Amino acid sequence: MALDAETRTQFLDTIRRFVRDKLVPLEAEVSETDRIPDAIIQDMRDLGLFGLSIPTEHGGLGLSMEDEVLVCFELGQTSPAFRSAIGTNVGIGSQGIVMFGRDEQKRAWLPKLASGEAIASFCLTEPGAGSDAASLKTTAIRRGDHYVVNGTKRYITNANRASVFTLMARTNPENKGAGGISAFVVPSNLPGIVIGKPEKKMGQQGAHICDVIFEDAKIPVECLLGDKEGEGFKVAMQVLDRGRLHIAAVCVGVAERLVRESVRYAQERTQFGQRIGDFQLIQAMLADSKTETYAARSMILDAARKRDEGQNISMEASCCKLFASEMVGRVADRAVQIFGGAGYVADYGIERFYRDVRIFRLYEGTSQIQQIVIARALMKGEG
Ligand code: CAA
Question: Which residue among 74, 262, 357, 368 is least packed, with the fewest CB closer than 10 Å?
Fold first, then answer.
């Protein structure tokens, strides 16, 4: 459901103020401590951020995709680790349940995910199955009234805080492809589920990724997502279609912040007796960054509106993720260049963004996977 114009404006203003007054001042601390303060998580709960995409009947805000990307444009204007705290509840962790869950699964989990009382993570990637997601090896073998799950999931965002996992596992080991995979909604506290230590990462300190290891974990049959086995890969792909738009919108938010910082620095810094922003070579970088940011913003809004109209936006979501994640990498690189030596020094925060944005070209499908999705759609005549 879309917000009315006035409510939307007020909500976006509230988020903008929250980002400016509460999150931006904490960026360096979160990066150094690798931790988001509890009080900020509580503020996010109070603002309804965990439930942006969860339907109102289950306690969320039930935003349209267009509203959600507008929120991401705002939330993206600070360290992406803050967005990651709510990201899996809004996107890949919850949307399998929203789109395919049975009523009892929705009732059991969505209100807690919307309030932020529970965190959801998305367990698809494995040590041997990254881009080739359909080759995953984790098995879920039916034994009477439960499945026995064995395998390791890797780089799972928010796994150390999760109460529930959307798990993709192979229910039919005879079928080595996509058709052998089923999706489950799994409480994280079941015996046989072990969470690894958070990985040390290049950027986005404060956001955590861990292994999730299943060792003869017994999962009740009621945990199967949807009505039948074998649909898990399609569940994952449809969740990712939506998630890719969300990530693309976050890239735009970060790019807008970096353009602003770059302009401010170009106005303040003088060399050769004048502001560096008066030099055309600096102006060219500013103009390219602004143009690309605007282009990404426009295409994301277009794709989000198409999704809200009920269109299949699988290809468009990949176009947005590909362009926006590559774009923000270029914008961050130019920001470092405009800041010069200061761009390389931690105090200015620009080098942190440079590291933070690198993951956008990797997770929820690498740029190369987005190219494959786009090209396959074109070759099928869907473009
Ligand atoms: N919607 C619905 N169905 C879809 C679909 C979509 N978007 N994409 C594929 N399918 C269906 C196909 O129609 C096909 O169905 P049939 O068998 O009935 O014809 C089935 O799924 C298999 O599809 P493909 O033959 O296209 O599968 P593939 O093995 O060639 O893989 C792929 C396609 C696009 C490469 C896919 O594997 C992919 O997207 N890989 C990247 C995985 C990814 O994004 N991982 C990110 C993990 S999550 C994360 O990063 C977050 C975190 O927490 C860190």
Answer: 368
